[in-house]
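Forum: Protein Structure Q&A
Topic: Joint prediction for protein chains with partners

I've read a bunch of threads here and the consensus seems to be that you should model interacting components together rather than docking separate models afterwards. I'd like to see that in practice. Below is the full input, 227 residues plus whatever partners are listed. Could one of the regulars post the assembled result?
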Amino acid sequence: SYVLTQPPSVSVAPGQTARITCGGNNIGSKSVHWYQQKPGQAPVLVVYDDSDRPSGIPERFSGSNSGNTATLTISRVEAGDEADYYCQVWDSSSVVFGGGTKLTVL
Amino acid sequence: QITLKESGPTLVKPTQTLTLTCTFSGFSLSTSGVGVGWIRQPPGKALEWLALIYWNDDKRYSPSLKSRLTITKDTSKNQVVLTMTNMDPVDTATYYCALWPQDGYNYFDYWGQGTLVTVSS
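Posted by a regular:
Agreed with the consensus. Here's the joint model:
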């Protein structure tokens, strides 16, 4: 089965740029989607199809995907961005989630 | 406005069968391409996909849990039901249902609030 690998944690100071990676075999050939989950809340889709944003998601959230790594980039990080982030792909008729990354805003 | 809400028991005993219902509004599961999925999350752990049912009754299951899962839909009631057999304490988790917006759009764009299910004797 397909495996998505995320770093357990990423830390960034307010106003800086956070980059969260999602590794997978030739992931660049798949569409990658990203969810934000704050404590006690359901996940929220923040990026879909590698780099598109749903309505209502700030432009500070962007994504890229190439080779074996997809990246969620959060620019001008705010305290409210502190959350867990999950990547997700569709592979062999199955939904696959990454292990999640906890973003800490210092 | 699209909403989804999960309902079911909060506590089940080991070996019992869990039945969860997702009641939704704001979309129809008879619309071509639309699906509803179930995802769970053990306390402090990652998301795990369980099952997905499409408008045409096509179904997909997590390979690791396929033998224990059944997903069905009642379009007239705007409900999707997930059953999981032979529950074990490791199945303790928050269970979410979510909207799969269209075939080919392979993500969940609206989620329910989740329901915590504890498996304990």
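Residues 2 and 26 of chain B are 4 Å apart (CA to CA).
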